[in-house]
Amino acid sequence: MIAVLPFLGAVFAAVMIRAGRNASALAAGATTLTALLLLAIAAPTVLNGGVDRLQVDWLPQLGLNVTLMLDGLGLLFAGLILGIGLLIITYARFYLAARDPMGQFFAYLLLFQGAMLGIVLSDNILLLLIFWELTSLSSFLLIGYWKHLPEGRQGARMALAITGAGGLAMIGGMLILGNIVGSYDLSVILQNRDLIQASPYYLPALILILLGCFTKSAQFPFHFWLPHAMAAPTPVSAYLHSATMVKAGIFLMARMWPVLSGTEAWFLIVTTAGLITMLIGAKVALFKDDLKALLAYSTVSHLGLITMLLGIGTKAAATVAVFHIINHATFKAALFMTAGIVDHEAHTRDIRRLGGLRRLMPVTFVIALITSLSMAGLPPFNGFLSKELMLEQTAITPYFGSVWLLGLLATLGAVLSVAYSFRLLVHVFGGPVRDDYPHMPHDPGPGLWLSPALLACLVVVIGVVPMTSAAWIVDAAASAVTGGVVNAKITHWHGIEAPALWMSVIAVGGGLMLLGLYPRLAALWAAAPRPEGKRMFDALVRAAAALARFVTDRLHDGSLPRAVTFAVLTIVGLAVLAFSGATHGPGLRAPTPVPGVVLAGFVLIVAAIVIVVARHRQRFVSLIFVGVIGLMISAGFAWMSAPDLALTQLTVEVVTVLLMLLALNFLPAVTPQESSLPRKLRDGVIALVAGIGAAVLTATIMLRDAAYPVISAFHLAQSKPGAGGTNAVNTIIVDFRGYDTYGEIIVLGIAALIIFALVEALLSDNGVIARLAAGRAASARAGDRHPMMLVVTTRLLLPVAIMVGVFIFLRGHNLPGGGFVAGLVVAIAFLMQYLASGFAWTTRQQRVDYHAVIGAGVMIAGLSGIGAWAFGLPFLTSGFEYVNIWPLEEFELATAAIFDLGVFLTVLGAVLLALASFSRLSVRAGTRVNTQAFDIDPSENRAL
Amino acid sequence: MEYLIAATIGLLTAAGIYLLLRLRSFPVIVGLSLLSYAVNVFIFAAGRLAINSPPIISSAAAGYTDPLPQALVLTAIVISFGMTAVILIMALGAYLGSGDDRINLQGPEGADIAPAATADRGA
Fold first, then answer.
1. Which residues of chain A have a CB within 8 Å of the CB of B49?
2. Could you tell me if residue A140 is inside a domain?
3. From CA A330, how far away is CA A455, in angstroms rounded?
4. Quick check: A590 contacting B, CB < 8 Å?
5. Residues A618-649: pLDDT tens digits?
6. Do B99 and A771 touch (CB under 8 A)?
7. Count of domains for chain A
8. Tens digit of pLDDT for each residue in A352-371?
9. Hey, is the C-beta of A645 within 8 angstroms of any chain B C-beta?
10. Which residues of chain A lie closer than 8 angstroms to B56, CB-CB?
11. Are B99 and A668 in contact (CB under 8 A)?
12. Residue A361 is assigned to a structural domain of this protein
């Protein structure tokens, strides 16, 4: 429930923006608060060591179930996500400018919040992966929120590319993990440490999962995306890039800690990556002039620190990591918000242009003072506690055979951390008040400073009384991480002999010294060459794009024959490969004898095909023979026990040829001779190879029995008792596979609408209209365009044809026929009217819009399916009843018939709309339009 | 008779592909129609051959042919009509819009674009 709330809230917030910005923010805040309260209700169970669990089966065959669980680690993260989320929503309400679309912002933010909660609460790793990808997507939307800024778009793209690629790697890793254990449930996986670590696939799985974690949490060498993501609005940076999203990788490492950690590989990879990230991040942070960039790199550095602690692999180190997650989230989110306030008020966040703000913005200064001292690791703030503990851990962990190496490097990181924290304080808030700020800064209203102030209070409270304020949640979370009971002891004073104390002292002293030397160091830094992550990334992207373009251009250079050639040859090649590589039984079916009439039909169709190809440049001739082929095929269907197919093929043939004739009306009548003889030969060889392949394949299939029992035995057996019809083909279409048919009629309707839309577009183009008119003038016409005999006959035929259509429709369930054929028959009857009396006259008689017919058809079919819901049955379950109405014979009434009616209407509407659209072209071409049924008025016996 | 059907399908495929490889839009559309005939008959043929045993349930029937491929082909026939119609209007639009019914992308002089010249298209 907690995980679902933000998603609902996202919709809610997006809708509420219509009621104003406050309403939208309120909606977002209220959902978050509700979720937080629900979490608080569930908290006592979890703190007592219990686990809240909720399971809904989704795709149990795939091991994919919606399983959510709430344990100590989940509680900690969910609390962070919702608590800081609430503060951020408040802050964002006052931070965003009036012209920013706020509803969108809150919708994205809540979407992200929901995805994050999903990650920390899911108990199924497949579900976790889905949420994982969802955070990448929603953070893409949030980073690129200011769409007008190119940095925003680039940063968003880079973040998506890197975290997305990591996500892909992680999917692989997780699947391997699930395969080793045989279950995708986290709780099962977590109990199988020995099995996983003994598996030969442990290392690949570990590397793939770590790739996902490192990219998400911006660990070296993937750290460079995070600073570029700072183009996002500050609330996003504060939320995603300090407290939540970047912690997702950390979360997962903590989640998987019981099964993955403790091995040499884990220790080396994770600790080293964390250590390097910590040092590089801290070093770069010191030299950044952009306030947010400084914070971004310091975040990278702190994430490295946590990663390193998790990498060490001892319970104590993991506990410290959990503690530092809390501390970092509090002070870094507050710092980001402070940076946002400075940016908001002074209109710049360039440190070189700031200074002296402590007098101008006292409230902001106090918040920044507390939080950056905490970041520097000074007492009595919470950052001090976790840094002391961290240093203590590194001092006792051997690294590359030496006990003091890790401690030394960690101290170096701490030195840098002190230096950049003080730089932020001194260079932004210290110094004299300047008179050249882009905008005169002053403290903002409480809307902006309230959220960071609350966090700053937390920083102090945790810092002063850690055992009462934070130890309980650290215990719960650390117990969940390590799988044992943890009772953390967090104290300020570890004794004068404790190495951590002296490391801290060195850190503060060294940090202050670095700050003193800053101008000289900065000059050195500016002169030194350094690899730029973004440049390398851009080069990589460009190279990939160039490669893709190269391949695409070789395969597809704008020439259709070339593309078709590649496709045909590939298909034939793969088919030959598959055919020769597989085993198949001998042809046991005896060939069916060939009667004379079939042979005659075969000769006819072969002749027709040969003529179509040989005379393809005379378009009209080839079209006529296409009709012959279609007729022969429908005769073939009738012969081979497929009456339904014969009927359909026959009617479709009529409308297709009509349509092609209409189109040919506008196209050139002959195809010019363009292909050279070698080209024709080449094409002929390609075509022959494919044709021989198709023939051999068909003969092979037809002379063998099916390898497995055919499923249609079920359809035949159930046609009458299950679907109430004796025509098995029709019952399959409207009943057994009704969902397919439903999709197909929708496709047909869409195709007709596309044709209509394209004609609309063509008719709004003046060049097209001019060309149409020119084409018409050139061609000669028959004198009598609407012969009376044709008109009278078609009028007489119309009711008869409609009756035939109705008859075919009604008997369709039991005998050959049905909605498809009936729709085509009735459509042809109407088309005859167009043919006989012209477009204008027929359109004038038309009372119902074809669009409406299509819509009604799809709707009726859909409703007949939904009707099953009323009886508690799945979509498109059909029912039937036998009824007796005098004087008719007993007949059955099936809901499938209603569905078939929908099919009938859609087919009718689609065919007519398609052909009528084509006719509209000719009307616009300037043809004389008749409004009478005849060209000749029979009453006066003279031409009109 | 199986061989005749196989030969018909093979011939339809070959004719369809040969026409697909032509340079003007109308033969390509005709080729596509032939190819859809071939595919429809092929799917139908996968149900094996049966004479005088339509899939209409009755106590007098000695046996039934496989109804499933028939149901699939029936909808496929109707859908291929929709597809042909859409491609036709696209061809028509291209012809009316450019005064030319060539299939390939055209260079400024009306000649087919050489592969090298397309390299900058995406840039």
1. 592, 640, 702
2. no
3. 6
4. no
5. 888 999 999 999 999 999 999 888 889 999 99
6. yes
7. 2
8. 888 778 788 888 888 888 89
9. yes
10. 643, 726-728, 814-816
11. no
12. yes
